[in-house]
Amino acid sequence: MQSLKVQVESLCIGINDNEFEKALVNCLECELDGIVGDKHRGISREAWETGDKQLGGTIRRNERHWSAVSMEELATISKTMNLTEPLTADLLGANLCFKGQDKLSQLPKGSVFKFPSGAELIVEEYNPPCPGMSEHLAQNLKTNSGVSLSNSAFSEAAKFLRGLVGVVEVPGIVNVGDEVTVIRYKPAPWLVKMTTG
């Protein structure tokens, strides 16, 4: 497996009923069922009405203990949207914001973030931009040109740049400023050979 280094730029936790935004914190306590105090903590969740793998309301495994974005990808999205203020992780409702990886969203399922405390977070999937978030941002953000954002502006600008979601693999503490080793998942050569034929 290939590895690289990133740094924790900011951390957030969903502690209220605000559907999108999260509160900035200095550390996250990660347990096997998610982030302590975060509204997405739990081993299960209800499938959404649209955009999920199951019928809406189905109780399914929670693959979204955490969500992450990168400073570099947020900067790209902000530039594309021509925003007066750059996007931040708390505005997008992401738990973690990393610095040092301009292709964070391209990390494959199975990649692992290893923190100094021993905590490990494993990637489940790419986190596509949702229409609800895009509409929320269109109503609350301003552009340098003064032109109002369309309801789909964020969804279009954030395509393949929205970050990742995953689960806690090993419990532990995550701190702002942590230097993190990212182990990029790479399938075993024999498996690649079997699937490519």
From TrEMBL:
SUPFAM superfamilies: PK beta-barrel domain-like. Transmembrane segments: none annotated. Gene3D superfamilies: PK beta-barrel domain-like. Coiled coil: none annotated. It comes from the Bacteria. PROSITE patterns: MOSC. Residues 22-183 form the MOSC domain. GO terms for molecular function: catalytic activity; molybdenum ion binding; pyridoxal phosphate binding. This is MOSC domain-containing protein. It comes from OM182 bacterium MED-G28.
